Amino acid sequence: MHQLFGLVLGQRDLSRAGDLFSLEDSEIEDCLSQALEEIKAISCSPDYLTNDNDQAVVEICITRITTAIRETRSIERHGGALVGLWESCLEHNLTPQGKDEDTPHAKIASDITSCILQNYSRPPVMALAVPVAVRFLQRGNRELSRNMSSYLSLAAMAKAELLAEHTEAITCSVLGGNHMLLRVLPSVYPKQPHAIHHHLGNLTAMMSQFESPEQQHLLRLIQMVAEQQPQVLSPLVPSLVGYLGDASLNETLLGALVYVSQASPASMAPFLPALRVVGQQYPVLLGHVVKIHRAVGLTSECQARSSLVYLVSLLGSMDHSFHHTLLLEIRALTDRYTSILGGCAKDIYRMSNSFTSIARLLGRRLETDTTINCRDRERERERERERERERENTEQRLQVKIQAFEEKMGEEGGEGLPTPQRRNSMGQAAREKHRDMRFNRSKSLALQAVRSRSINSDSGQDGEVVELTSEAFLSESTPNQQTEALDTSPTERELNNENSLGGGIGEGKEDKLYSHLRDNMEKIKEFCSEMVQQIPIPEHCVIEDSSHGSVAKLSFSCPLKGHYCLYTKSCFTLTSRQPHLWINVMLLHLQSKHSAPLSSLDDCVQKLGRLWERTQLKEAHGFSMAMTQQPTPHRKDLDSLQIHLEEVRFFDLFGFSEEEGSWLCFMCNNPEKATVVNEEGQPLIEGKLKEKQVRWKFIKRWKTRYFTLAGNQLHFRKGKSVCIPFTLRL
């Protein structure tokens, strides 16, 4: 050791410590490791914490040594001794004693940290330093931990494998509040994925606590997990979807959810409605939303139909540049489940670039299939419910009749026995025994009938309901068996008749429709208050037969009937293949306008019931039964009505007026625009039309004609002058 270093450290001579800086670096280079060992011994002495002189000597010596190491670039030569002194600080208290007041050993560690970790690009030095640096993260010194995190991030970029074995400690430090280390996790993830998977849920839950740069590091980590092991993110889908409302996060998160939907589509199925809202708010993300719908739709035909309804609605409304991608996703679903479109799939996809036409055809096909499938499923569920109710009612009626029969047999046993001698006679005893045998046999036959009926119902056999009465019990007997003829009094016959009809009477007195509407009054009013702003209520409905089955011919008019109203003397009409759904909507709208529940006896309800009967297919539900299946229609059913109204251009001619609370025509909604298209009370519109002069498609020859629509005449200019009588009908 150099003589001056020996004097200063040996005698703790603070007055000579400053002379160390007058020495050349080359003079002391060989003794730096020895000097570090001496400093380590001084700092570990029992009185070091209270000896200000020793602390000052150590601080000056460390500064001189670290300066010499940097200037001579001898970190690899003296790194072991420097890291040894650094590590010895971990054996002492590093927690600040007061505000911004470090302990003596924390000061030593802080002075050495930068000298060591600035060499993050030198693997031999980092191999010694990283295990010690990680231990400093959990020692409660925020400033020291922050500096350590900064250097470790640089080390991870240069040599990630050095930090990989410490992934667990680094992740715990992040969860403890050291958010700066988030940037390390994407670097070590490929080496230690399982250690991060274990804490990924807690990290994701802290997303809102992170600053924007830290969020980007976590997003990068989530993206890496999604690309390599997307199934790990399946339990985190609810929390990830919850962050999609943040514009700075949603693009990366939605991209990760695309991978999740391919690995675990079932985990994404409940969140498709939320994703549609995101797609509506951020159209740039629709590509990801569409891919997730396709992945979920491929799991089953039911999911495919649900996804197709949404995808087809986009096809008719999105920008042309998006159509090709969207059509590929639609075709992937229809190719997997060919029964959805049947044999017409190729014809639909062979059409020209008229994506609106394709959307319209696909929508109609889906609407028809969905209606049929829903009707079949509802019919099957209703049959099962009816069989269950039938079994319960039969068992209840049987118990009542058995009880009545037992009481009657008890009364018969008490009659005709005026004296004790008669009661004890052998003949009477024989008759009582015979009566008991007959009752037990009748009871057994009745129970056997119930069991047989339950078996038939469970096997799906629908049969006529057979009413079992007490007379039937009495008439049952086995061959070659002597029976006693019992005469039934008129009173008993009346009682038996009432018992045989009791089940039917109780059912007839209850109005299921009334009970259903009464129990769901508030829900129906709330539903209708929103529904009428999206779906107009027709003024007239006529059920007609067509080659495709029953259809509803609906008429809509403008209730305001303003001066320029488009429908003062006419109506807007359309034909729908969903008459059942329209009838349901009209019933709910009627109920929302009444303060008391409607019943099956009301004239308006009976009219709707007659309309329903016109549409009823074989084995379909009756009106009351169908209307009580659910309080309100499903959202997808209302969406199909909206799609059809868009196809027939209803929303181009009508708009909902919040002021009037009803659907008004364009002119009544916008009276200020009436003067633009009217001149002296007559319609006036100018424009141009293109006329193809040659019928062959490959010859592109067109003639432009300019026209003016004035009053009831259409005038052409340029070319041949022509005046055509014209009636404006919108």
From TrEMBL:
Subcellular compartments: Cell membrane
Location of the PH domain: 682-730
Segments of this protein annotated with the region Disordered: 376-442, 473-510
GO cellular component, one term: plasma membrane
Keyword Membrane attributed: yes
Skewed-composition ranges (Polar residues): 475-489
Alphabetical UniProt keywords: Cell membrane, Membrane
Membrane topology: Peripheral membrane protein
Biological process, per Gene Ontology: regulation of signal transduction
Residues of the signal peptide: none
UniProt name for this protein: Ventricular zone expressed PH domain-containing 1
